Every structure is written in C-alpha cells, then in structure tokens.
Amino acid sequence: MKILFVISSLEAGGAERVLTQLATHWADDKGHEVHIVIFRPQGTDSFYPLSSKVKLHTLGDLKRNGASFLSWGKRFMSSLWGLRLFIKKLNPDHVVSFVNVINIVTLLTTLGLKKPLIISERVDPRYHNITLLGNFLRRILYPLATKLIVQGDYIASYFPYLKGRVFIIPNPVSVPSSISSKKETKRLIHVGRLTPQKGQDILLKAFAKALKSAPNWHLDLYGQGAEKENLESLTKELGLQNNVTFQGVTKNIQEKVSEASVFCFPSRFEGFPNALSEAMALGLPVVASDCGGNLELVQHEENGLICPIDDVDAFAKALARLMTQPDYGEKLGNQAKKSMKKFSKKTAFEKWDEVISRV
C-alpha cells in the first residue's frame, strides 16, 4: 500500500511527532510505501526520529514571512499546484493530511482526483483561529474527506455534519521504561510553544504568587515561539529573573521533565496535549487548566489538579499546594502514571490501522 502524508513541517510539535511515529509504524511494521510532503525549503529534516524507509519531499513554504500579498499569493498557488501534480504523479492509495489549514489545502488540491483522503484535526476548532475564510472553507470542504480523525469527544462534537465519518483516536503516549520521575528537586517545568494558546503568561504570574509560600523554587520553560520576548519582559517585570529559565527546544525533553517535581500546563485550548500526557506517564503531579484536551486526561484531585482557564490565583494556589506538600504530589503522580497506560502506542496504531484498512 502506498500512503502519502501531508503536513506543514516536521518541526517540534505534537502533530509532527504523532505523524512521524505513525509513518514509521506503517513503513517498518506494516511494510507500506510511505511518503511525506512538507511545505518547507529543500533539505529540511524531521525534528523527530523517522524511519529511513519513509521518503520525505519538500514543496514551497506556505508562510507569508513578510512578503507582499501578491508575491505570497503566487508562491501559495504554486505550492498548491505543485502538490496536486505530485499527488497525480505519485498516485498513492491513501492521502493523510494533518492540521486544519493543511487539511483545507489538501482537500482543494485533490478535487477531482478521486483519492481516498483522511484528514486529521489536531486542536480544538472552537478556539483555534484560522480566519473567517478558513472556517468557511473548512465547513464546505471537510464533507469531501473520506474520514476525519479527531482526538476526543469534545472535538468530535464540533462536526455533527460529518456524523458517521468521524473517528476518535487519542495520541499515543510512550515514555521509555528507563525514565521515571524522581521528584527530588524544587523545580517546576512547562513544555509548549511560546504562544498565547499555551498560557505561559498565566503561569509566570501564578508562579510569582506561589513563590511567596514556597521560596527557592525554579521554573523551566521548554519551547520556542513568537511570544518569547514578551514572556521574557514579563519575567523581568515580575522580578523572576533568578527563578525562571527559558530553555528553548531539546530532543531529550522526557529526561528534562523527569528531573522536575511538578508539571504546569495552563493552556487556553488544546487538542490532545502530548506534553501533558507524557509528564503524567512519567509520574509527575500536574497542574492544568480546564480546557477540553486537558480534561480528557486529568481528573481533579485524582490524578492531578485542574484550575479555571486564565485564573492566576487558582493556578498559584494549586502550584503552592504541590510545592509545599510533596507527599500529596507523590500520590497524584502515581495515579497520573497509572491513568496514562490506556493511551499506548499499540492501541493508537491499531485504531489507525483499522481506519486505513476500511477506507
């Protein structure tokens, strides 16, 4: 079977990691011929491990990057036409697209080609702004897809007009058995792109308050993004320069998470949060906001603590509780680890295998 994936890039991110894992599974375990198209300059590699059997192809960058509208429009249309020609030449048995904008692009470029197309929505569409035009195109084009994969019931409920074609497949959660949380340091950790969605501004403000109850703690933020300068300015404004470190991106993130004692995740919206699920699988106690994706994983005071979105005071109290009560954190962390076992790679891949075999 010949399978083509389409995604914007293979940079660090949840959708990118799941796609590379799935592509490797289908190439190595199932013996399929697997190709990936990304919209990045030639020579771009995958941030995550990818089977050598998977063939990676690059087309022009879809980002505007400061170009004039006319220049960007020409480049955008050239990339779309290039994708259509590539699909016609490759002639895959299945096309699998990841993330909303790329789903729309792929649906447009495959019009009339009569190719089975599986699209995957990776974040809550209620809050992820893709412009009025994007929302309009999603509404009229998504019904043309063969199947839609989402990560939870709350996302599936957004697409009642696709009833019967929506499949729920949570992300696989996998951590090496050799890595487990030690919870021996006075360190909090957050992992995520530095964007308004992830709520790092709320975390910094909450941490400043929590430090009054538990001084000498440190917060590490892993990730990169457009909000870095604003967040660094907020850190200085709050007087946290000696207590907060922006660590950037690392490929051994699970080891870094295991070295912390509390995982913080104040997102404003989520799909299936990989960073949160992996921290829980490592046995860390977590404090998370009550957005849809987080609530799929965390049950308040059973395997973690939940706070209202954008509630600095509530988040600060939850952090202080775990920073000052290590035994309680140990209890929550143990329950978190147990609760993640149902999201195994094996289970997720079997569901994807079933979908692809039934198309």
> What's the level 1 CATH class of the largest domain?
Alpha Beta
* Unreliable sequence segments: none
| Largest sheet: spatial strand order | 3-2-1-4-5-6-7
Radius of gyration (CA) equals: 21 Å
Instruction: Supply the number of helical segments.
Output: 13
CATH-assigned homologous superfamily of the largest domain: Glycogen Phosphorylase B
What is the overall shape?
Answer: globular
Description:
This protein has 13 helices and 13 strands. With 359 residues, the protein is of the alpha/beta class. It folds into 2 domains: 186 residues, Glycogen Phosphorylase B (Rossmann fold); 153 residues, Rossmann fold (3-Layer(aba) Sandwich). The strands form 2 sheets. Strands 3-2-1-4-5-6-7 form a 7-stranded parallel beta sheet, sandwiched between helices. Strands 10-9-8-11-12-13 form a 6-stranded parallel beta sheet, with helices on both faces. Helix 3 links the parallel strand 4 and strand 5. The longest helix has 22 residues. The protein is globular. It starts with a strand and ends with a helix. The mean pLDDT is 93.
